[in-house]
Amino acid sequence: MPHIKLFIPGPIEVSEKTLAAMAKPMIGHRSGDFKKLYAAIQPQLQALFYTKQPVFLSTSSSWGVMEGAINNVVGKKVLNCMNGAFSDKWLDVSRRCGKQADGLQAEWGKPVDPKALDAKLATGEYDAVTIIHNETSTGVMSNIEELAAVLRKYPNVISIVDTVSSFSVVPIKMDELGIDVLLTGSQKALALPPGLSLFACSERAFERAAQIQGRGYYFDFLEFKKNAEGSMTPSTPCISQIYALQSKVEEIFAEGLEARYARQAKTNQLVADWVVARGFEFFAEEGYRSKSLTCISNNKGLDMEAVNALLKKRYSAMINCGYGKIKGTTFRISNMGDETEATISELLTWLDDCIKG
Ligand SMILES: *Cc1c(COP(=O)(O)O)cnc(C)c1O
Fold first, then answer.
1. With a threshold of 0.90, does the pTM exceed it?
2. How far, in Å, CA of 43 to CA of 20, rounded?
3. Which of 236, 253, 270 is the last residue in one of the domains?
């Protein structure tokens, strides 16, 4: 099978170095070597989360922790902020967990509205809220600082924030913002293979969890907390994933966080300039465009599936032709992970060539 370079917004391209890190021999998950590995990456993970709390590792995809968060902290009723495919799904997931849940729906392409959130929380009906910081389906990045300011007015409402496609793309200061559960996944902004999730919880989130019946076992946040005290996970994790994470975290700090944010802002701007120069339009509302991917309205009615097929054939690369109900009417280009100005510029010249036919 030829190597097709992924510019889709997840899973994204994984470097040879990361893949090689996964090929190390196994160690016991209760061994001293494992505990050393786990403990060694904690300070860097905490720096990435901007938290003093322990960062937990779950070798599940993000939905495992997203569902787990519902089961751990929702007592009364959860408000699911919805503005795209992933965030919309969270309402369905909350109800499947047997929880009382309401949706706060924004139109796709728009961010979560802080005023609407405030009005909903003011009813006093809710004790938890879910927000997706960066809606990967629509390329919308909500303003987490404004939303967090609203959430801080309601200390009894536990906030659950998904940063799967924005983590390490922009700083998300968990402790400073007062976010209760912050979670991310491996296959998007971290450029790791799918199947690993990282999350951290505030003291309030742990206190809430302690009052909740039916947390289950596999995603019981208090089990994660207890095991983390001994630098372990509750059950056997995919140790290869943790080797990959260690390798990636080393890279991130070798580059430097600020340099990483700046590089991604630049590659994102290159795509934005191309969109404007070619007469395309952004799907996301102005001021709320994601920094990690671009969702482009196919306003020219191009056959993007055909363009993508050409891109694959000629250049062994792939973009995405839209997700959920905007499949076909939009296309998406990811600039997450290891991409540089050189690789994104190259992709854009390939796209121009393939659009010509
Ligand atoms: C991809 C994605 C998810 C789902 O992740 P899985 O790893 O498939 O469980 C959740 N939230 C966002 C914002 C995503 O982009």
1. yes
2. 23
3. 253
Shared-domain flag, residues 304 and 230: no
Query: Domain check: are 180 and 49 in the same one?
Result: yes
What is the phi-psi region of residue 216: left when phi exceeds 0, alpha when psi lies from -120 to 50, beta otherwise? left
Of 67, 45, 65, 47, the C-alpha closest to 55 is 45
Q: Which range marks the domain in which residue 304 is found?
A: 5-12+256-356
How many domains are there within the chain?
Answer: 2
Ligand 1 pocket mutation, candidates 136, 137, 295, 336, criterion most atoms within 8 A of CB = 136
| Same domain (yes/no): 313, 286 | yes
Q: Match 């056959």 to its residue by tokens.
A: 303
**Which residue ranges have their beta carbon within 6 Å of ligand 1?**
10, 61-63, 86, 132, 136, 162, 164-165, 185, 188, 194
CA-proximal residue: ligand 1, atom 15 (nearest): 136
Q: Are residues 318 and 247 in the same domain?
A: no
- Which tens digits make up the pLDDT trace of 179-212? 999 999 999 999 999 999 999 999 999 999 999 9
Tell me if 186 sits within 8 A of 245, measured CB to CB.
Answer: yes
CA of 273 to the centre of ligand 1 (A): 27
Which of 8, 63, 219 is the best mutation target for the ligand 1 pocket, counting ligand atoms within 8 Å of the beta carbon and taking the most? 63
Spacing, Cα 1 to ligand 1 middle (Å): 26
Using CA positions, which residue lies closest to atom 2 of ligand 1?
164
pLDDT at 173 over 90: yes
